[in-house]
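re the bet — no i am not wrong, look at it urself. input seq straight from the record:
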Amino acid sequence: MRSSSYSVLPARPFRALVVLALTAGAVVTAPTARAETPAPALAAKPYMGWSSWSMQSSKYPGLNPDGDYSYLTEANVLKQAGALAAKLKKYGYEYVNIDAGWWMDKNWKSGFDQYGRQKPDPTRFPRGMKAVADDIHAKGLKAGIYLPAGLEKGAYGDGKTPIRDADGCTTADIVYDDLRTTNGWDSSYKLDFAKPCTPKYIDSQAQLIADWGYDFLKLDGVGPGSGKSGDQYDNVADVAAWNEAIAATGRPIHLELSWSLDIGRAADWKKYSQGWRVDTDVECYCNTLVSWENSVDDRWDDTPAWTRHAGPGGWNDLDSLDVGNGEMDGLTKAERQSYATLWAIAKSPLYTGDDLTRLDSYGLSLLTNREVIALNQGPNPPAHPVTPSDPQQVWAARNPDGTHTVALFNLADAPAAVTADWTTLGFTGKATVRDLWNHEELGTYRNRITQALPAHGSRLFKVTPRGTSPVTSTPYEAEAGANTLAGNASVADCAPCSGERKVGNLYLGGKLTFNDVVVDKAGTYQVRIAYISGDSRSVGISAGGASGTRHKFPSTGDWGTVATVSVPVSLKAGSNTITFDSGTGYAPDIDRIDVPKQS
């Protein structure tokens, strides 16, 4: 079951956005995306399709008339498959993914076969799961199915249930003797892979879904993640076993992991799967499919740390893209475009949870915009923030053809202007701008573009530099002896940092002041800051003793990865000071700053 099948997650604060794409000279520094040559057969690009969960989980009138999650039936899945084939298939959408509940009755009671494997509920799927996959395939589409991590409690059968094709093995021989539980809801017993019978159970599950003809498996409640941590909830061995079992079937099956996976185990997720959920459920578990505040908006905070882990063979999954149904989605038009924009530039899989039989014209235009889809499916890397995660943001990526994808975000709940400064992208001068959502050439802009955005609004552009110059900057190391440290601030070793040192312990009044920062002319400079932060942290930045502005820096994913953002700082001609002040909280560690020679 999904993360909120058992409990509704709390709402989280909201924001808004805008997006662009550019062609530039210099590279925007950030953790780079993983690339493999040749591209793997599975997940060479983010997958596209439809998932049943958003409609199953919603309380929108009429969706679940026979009780919670009752939408999931063979008839409804095939109706959506038909609509996908008719409306979206030609744009690249191909997976029809059946989520939690296919083996449960309307009271959410599970059914299992004689070998402890999930058995389709005869009311929901009267012809069984193979017939459904066959019908999906007949439409030229791929079929997806769902399972939770571990051995479900109902499958245990007092430990006497035999394991298929494993002589003498029973369910008592595959779990820990103390029947410790696992997964995000503790709905399963934890599998003990020190016991020789255990892999046989995963093998039997994998062979079953392969025999049914499924092309995709979502394994849910996986830890570390899914709201749980510790040995009891460590399912890396399960994921590795699934990877091996799928390979043994001889059928290519995409393995997707859910939910809120621990970024500290990213190497394992990349090794054993083709995708991983980086966040909570996008659904609001309310009378619409989603809401901006509940968790759609969280992705702007939570995605940046994962960016460097995405690439051919495995992608960061931001969850369902529910932008096609208007009132049912529960979002404004601006929010729907922003939602679609972030998913596209982050190179998340594009799978919608909407009712495809009643897409409105605006939603259809978002889901079928070929330029935006090409951005998501093409060879360009995922975008990342080039300004801090404040209400007005710019995200960007330099593409292999020299263009840049750039996103402007107004995540505030009121209209605001957002500026993309070419300096933050590594060049100065002129660039042409194309609006990808509207398929419109906007003309040539010198040094920057500013857009007025509605609350939670966005734009998506492709920008191509024309006769530009690379940005030249003066570097200043945080650990330099000329700087001033105050409070708890201290210099520490840092192997990935530019001088192999950094300034950390910037907390509860800790300060770092760069002295003698020299510029020729007074003006506002886009100062690039190299930093490390295992979580999202804020810091006040000021120049010359003036009042500072606090900026929230996105997490770099761990305390051993350096990322960069640019912050506008007003400097006078001559010598200046730039201070980083933790205030009453905790600030990121600072590696260095680079001050452009031109404002």
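see?? The longest strand covers residues 457-470. told u. also Residues 385-470 form a domain with the Immunoglobulin-like fold (CATH 2.60.40.1180). so pay up
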